[in-house]
Specification:
- This protein has ten helices and twelve strands.
- The protein is an alpha/beta fold and 364 residues long.
- Helix 5 packs parallel to helix 6.
- The protein is globular.
């Protein structure tokens, strides 16, 4: 696939766009390595691919991200945990993408800042650690490996990503290094993937050394649901379509007639039952469990600060020329250690969702 190198015009550091109403996500410092949806994995349910502004026919990389990011770090006095490339896989098998990702990782390590990466690339995850071996002892990061289906259904859910067995092998090897691994089973395409299969994935994550599980059933617009349906129809699992329609309340034959903004998701009852079973399964093996977006925090395992476990990710505050971690993960809405006297001394972050970049540069 063609790779195009571009300069990013906007700020590198940005927050999730979700407002405070029903928001579950903490403040984060997002860093986009590519334009939205520019990923060779081409997973049909990918939310980034379903944006109308996403690019499908090439990989657009932001070549100036490392330099621009360093400028922004130098201007900042408070930095929430970094999430590297939420709109594409930062470790996908594209040389230019990985080179930029590795530069960003080295930069964050240089300033002793927290970060995590979500990937479906087993080889990419191991290449990251082999290329930057100091990550083995770096205390402010973790990796999240997504394994969303059994290997016989991967041809539908992630046909161009690493094989399922390779991902589990990578989880085991990374865990043996002592690096915390979060296992993601999301989004589960319920109707295609059975809850018993997801329980099996959780068991394997546990035996491979993962510390935490994130699950969801997903939200789909007509474009992403259409891709899912087409992938299933082109497979030997086409008889799953009626169950999929039932779970997500749509009709496959009429997808083109739904409004562009229409969202398909399971009922609250279905979600609650699904996540109850998965949380119980995870906790049975000594793991914690978090739900991405679709249910409130009380449905997660107790005593976790955010749905993804926030393993070793902290807010960092400038002290002189250095950034030092504080006892906070930037989940101001749900997990602030002290609402009246927060450790960051910035009570306005409890109301500002998403934050304005200038807030990170302010002293108080």
């Amino acid at each position: 696939m063609e790779v195009e190198l571009r300069d990013l015009k906007a700020n590198v550091i940005h927050d999730f766009p979700y407002p405070s109403v029903k928001r579950k996500c903490p403040h984060v410092a997002l860093v986009s390595i590519t334009h939205s949806g520019c990923c060779v994995h081409k997973c049909p349910m990918c939310y980034a691919r379903s944006y109308k502004w996403s690019v499908e026919d090439k990989i657009v990389c932001y070549k100036n991200v490392p330099e621009k990011l360093e400028t922004e770090i130098k201007q900042s006095n408070l930095l929430p945990p970094f999430y590297i490339s939420q709109v594409s896989d930062a470790l996908q098998p594209v040389t230019e993408v990985r080179e930029i990702t590795f530069k960003v990782v080295r930069l964050l390590m240089q300033y002793k800042l927290s970060f995590h990466i979500v990937t479906k690339s087993a080889e990419g995850a191991l290449a990251l650690i082999e290329t930057i071996p100091d990550l083995i002892d770096y205390p402010y990061w973790h990796i999240q490996m997504t394994i969303e289906a059994s290997k016989d259904k991967q041809s539908i859910t992630s046909p161009y990503a690493s094989e399922i067995e390779q991902r589990f092998e990578a989880v085991k090897k990374i865990s043996e290094y002592g690096i915390p691994v979060v296992g993601r089973t999301d989004p589960t395409i319920l109707g295609l993937v059975k809850i018993e299969e997801v329980c099996g994935l959780i068991q394997r994550f546990a035996s491979s050394g993962a510390k935490h599980i994130v699950g969801s059933l997903g939200f789909y617009n007509p474009l992403s649901m259409g891709r899912v349906v087409k992938s299933i129809l082109d497979s030997r699992w086409r008889n799953c379509i009626p169950e999929l329609e039932k779970v997500y309340s749509f009709k496959a034959d009429y997808l083109s007639q739904y409004a562009v903004r229409k969202m398909f998701s399971p009922t609250i009852s279905t979600r609650t039952k699904f996540h109850y079973v998965l949380r119980r399964e995870a906790e049975k093996y000594g793991l914690t469990y978090g739900i991405c977006l679709e249910l409130p925090k009380q449905y997660d395992s107790p005593n976790i600060r955010a749905c993804d476990g926030m393993l070793r990710n902290f807010v960092h505050i400038r002290v002189g020329n250095d950034f030092l971690p504080i006892d906070c993960c930037a989940n101001c809405l749900h997990s602030c250690p002290d609402l009246t006297n927060p450790p960051c001394n910035r009570t306005y972050l409890q109301q500002e969702y998403p934050y304005k970049y200038k807030r990170l540069c302010a002293y108080f």
